[in-house]
Specification:
This protein has 17 helices and 36 strands. By secondary structure, it is of the alpha+beta class. It folds into 2 domains: 70-602, no CATH class; 635-761, Neutral/alkaline non-lysosomal ceramidase, C-terminal domain (Immunoglobulin-like, Sandwich), CATH 2.60.40. A hairpin with a 4-residue loop joins strand 10 (246-254) and strand 11 (259-265). It is globular and about 90 Å long. Bound molecules: zinc ion. Zinc ion binds at residues 160, 269, 506.
Length: 778
């Protein structure tokens, strides 16, 4: 059994540590505690001295035995939506619509209960959690569980994959780039997240949590070093790197020490898959989860098995996984340092890549590194997390927060607005027009167009956002619905000595450090916490783009231009999160005094965010499917070869229907790779469309005809033997003028996989198989 560490959250009156209490109950209470503490000490001494062998005595509870285990539940559920025609969320590239599956998307839920309070942390393979998604999830939880899961004790965080589906937003700006609010995209996310919580809820059992922290170098670079350099020198000097390298791991075990799950945080953009990708993919963070889960659930297909590994986003605002850094793709030379553009081709030519040769290899390398580091920390995690749980949440009108800078001066946040450099995109992708980063002056051409189409920003907003040249004054644009959220969530949950700060957007490295420090200071200020580990959960609860420091904001690169509430956005958050942390710290202290009330619940809830009724949807319904004359859906257009070696790629193309006709595709698959088992004369599935080794492409042809191409990248670990690939789908046809949806499937010829073409065993097996095939066909 591990020894309880000194740094844990100080517990309550029933625990011996209540004597550490210093405030809130008044002098009488302090005296009582001191006296009680004294008596306890005396009794302890007496028992220690007087306990003789054979003499029955009440054992004095040690801290180890008195620490009640938590109830812990973990759950994972598929949240993949229809991978066709719907835009992918992240690069805001309208041409990047879904066309297949690289890896499936999952929601991973962790429920912790201290017998008094319960918290839920969800990390989902999604670009970001939107306000709409959160509200729909909370509504569904309320309908199912009443008041058990609420806005204050449930954190929803996105991994920031840029290859998940869009369409789950209620504000106009996001709806425009997403083709509106798309029900078929929202439903699997809501249902998948809720299902992951259901699974965690139903398997809660007593267990323990251990925390561990390490550093992972070489896996991330700062993509706006110029902005970072604008932070004060003495502040920068405190840090070795311009991105955070720490990986924080929480290890969950049952009471026998068997691992049941892991939750980790690392700050890096999930943009290893770039904007040329059209397949739904969980990118580097999702693949790290996949690797850890495959490791801990041996023999299971991806997405199956009890062990759940969450790799959650953090302060990744200016952090890129494209470690080769930005280069002009046309010349190979580095881009302009200040505004990330190229002499020929401008911003569009300046792109980051690496560390691999292509995006798949880059995803694999980054994911492997994160997974390896997390696994090492998981294996060595020895510091037990103990103490009660707390959560604090508020809705805040971020357009109007006043911040006291000093005794005489206040500043304020602004109505949301995006700067010119927002349209430049980043070196990770985006930005098709002639905008460049680092622009502090407007452009008369684009400003003119903007004024005509959406209107001129007010003077008040322009002044408030200075020096940001405003491209879209989204806070002043309300047609047909508001363009940006005004009411946002601030939230902290504490699990013993670990504080999870849920941030509603992409916070930069230095902003994240300041926020962690502020929260830590506040939590520890009253003596309620010691050696608390503060971690930032990024992309949580509602999306508000970026959060930079005031200094970074002045440079107006992409992140500054996308800090929508103005130059004092971070200061406002520091103030708000400090408030939450203080409430938690006070709750810890007050809770230890009669009548044991939780002060956190006295925090004002704040203004409720809106839930818009009339959302627009620009996606047309998927049309009927056609096929060539004298063929059927599922027929093979391009067949497999008879023999492959490990390391080869098998490719096969079928006549297909639109994947949108397959409805709810969660826990299903468009693809299986199957191996023949000659002992049982059956086919066994070795891969699905969730597998890293398979790629399912949907190719939309002309005249409503489409194909599905399945690729299998045969891994070196593949068993030699006979295989087949199957494809499953649905097609829509009109029958008597009514749409009818029909399932279909297609199967490849049997092919063999061998280590070498020249193996005698292979030829013998091949002959046996051919004989068997003949027997079964004739
Ligand atoms: Zn981002």
């Amino acid at each position: 059994m591990f020894k309880q560490q000194e740094h844990t959250l100080l517990p309550f009156p029933t625990h011996s540590m209540a004597r550490k209490k210093t405030v809130s109950c008044g002098a009488v209470a302090i005296l009582v505690v001191l006296v009680t503490g004294g008596i306890v000490t005396l009794i302890t001494l007496m028992f220690t001295r007087n306990t003789a062998p054979g003499l029955e005595s009440t054992p004095v509870p040690s801290q180890e035995t008195e620490h009640k285990p938590y109830l812990i539940g973990v759950g994972r559920a598929d949240c993949t939506g229809p991978p066709a025609e719907i835009p992918l969320m992240g690069y805001a590239n309208t041409k990047q619509t879904g066309a297949g599956i690289h890896t499936r998307l999952y929601s991973r839920a962790f429920i912790i209960d201290d017998g008094r309070k319960r918290v839920v942390f969800v990390t989902a393979d999604v670009g970001m959690v939107s306000q709409r998604l959160r509200l729909e999830v909370l509504n569904a939880l309320k309908a199912k569980y009443g008041n058990l899961y609420r806005q204050d004790n449930v954190v929803l965080s996105g991994t920031h994959t840029h290859s998940g589906l869009a369409g789950y937003f209620q504000y106009t700006l996001f709806m425009i780039t997403s083709k509106g609010y798309i029900k078929e995209s929202v439903q699997p996310l809501v249902n998948g997240i809720v299902k992951s919580i259901d699974i965690a809820h139903n398997n809660t059992k007593p267990g323990r949590i251990y925390r561990s922290r390490g550093e992972l170098e070489g896996n991330s670079v700062n993509r706006s070093p110029h902005s970072y350099m604008n932070n004060p020198e003495e502040e920068r000097n405190r840090y070795k790197w311009n991105t955070d390298k720490q990986v924080l791991v929480l290890k969950f075990t049952d009471l026998d020490g068997n691992g049941i799950g892991m939750l980790s945080w690392f700050a890096v953009h999930a943009v290893s898959m770039n904007y040329t990708n059209r397949m739904v993919s969980s990118d580097n963070m999702g693949y790290a989860s996949y690797l850890m889960e495959q490791d801990k659930n041996p023999g299971e297909l991806p997405g199956h098995g009890g062990f759940v590994a969450g790799f959650s986003s953090s302060n990744l605002g200016d952090v890129s996984p494209n470690t080769k850094g930005p280069h002009c793709v046309n010349t190979g030379l580095p881009c302009d340092y200040l505004n990330s553009s190229c002499p020929v081709g401008g911003t569009k030519m300046c792109q980051s890549s690496g560390p691999g040769e292509d995006m798949f290899e880059s995803t694999r390398i980054i994911a492997h590194n994160i997974y390896q580091k997390a696994k090492e920390l998981y294996v060595n995690a020895k510091e037990e997390v103990t103490g009660f749980l707390h959560s604090a949440h508020q809705w805040v009108d971020m357009t109007n927060v006043t911040i006291q800078i000093n005794s005489t001066h206040t500043v304020s946040t602004c109505k949301p607005a995006l700067g010119h450099s927002f349209a430049a995109g980043t070196t990770d992708g985006g930005g098709d027009l002639n905008f460049t980063q680092g622009s502090v002056e407007g452009d008369p051409f684009w400003d003119g167009i903007r004024d005509v189409i959406v209107g001129k920003p007010s003077n008040e907003t322009q002044e408030c956002h200075h020096p940001k040249p405003i491209l879209f004054s989204t806070g002043e644009m309300n047609w047909p619905l508001p363009w940006h959220p005004k009411i946002i969530d601030v939230q902290i949950i504490t699990i013993g000595s670990v504080a999870v700060v849920a941030v509603p957007g992409e916070i930069t490295t230095m902003s994240g450090r300041r926020l962690r420090e502020s929260v830590k200071q506040e939590l520890q200020s009253e003596g309620a916490f010691r050696d608390v580990e503060v971690v930032i959960a990024g992309l949580s609860n509602v999306y508000t783009h970026y959060i930079t420091t005031f200094e970074e904001y002045q440079v107006q690169r992409y992140e500054g231009a996308s800090t929508i509430f103005g130059p004092h956005t971070l200061s406002a958050y520091l103030q708000k999160y400090r408030g939450l942390a203080r409430a938690i710290a006070q709750a810890v202290m007050i809770w230890s005094c009669p009548p044991f009330q939780d002060n956190v619940s006295e925090l004002p809830t704040g203004p409720q965010p809106p839930f818009f009724k009339k959302l627009f949807n620009l996606m047309t319904a998927a049309g009927v499917d056609r096929k060539p004359e004298n063929s059927s859906f599922g027929d093979v257009v391009q067949q497999v070869y008879p023999v492959y070696r490990k390391g080869d790629v098998v490719s096969i193309t079928f006549i297909a229907g639109n994947p949108r006709h397959s409805g709810d595709i969660r826990d299903k698959t468009f693809v299986t790779v199957e191996i023949y088992d000659n002992r049982t004369d059956t086919w066994k599935t070795v891969h699905t469309d969730a597998s890293w080794e398979t790629r399912f492409h949907w190719l939309k042809g002309s005249n409503r005809q489409s194909n599905s191409t399945v690729e299998w990248y045969i891994p070196p670990s593949a068993a030699s033997g006979f295989y087949r690939i199957k494809h499953f789908g649905h097609f829509k046809q009109l029958k008597a003028l009514r749409p009818v949806i029909t399932p279909y499937e297609g199967t490849s010829d049997v092919f063999s996989v061998t280590g070498s073409f020249y193996s005698q065993r292979y030829y013998e097996a091949e002959l046996r198989m051919q004989k068997k095939e003949r027997m079964s066909y004739y």
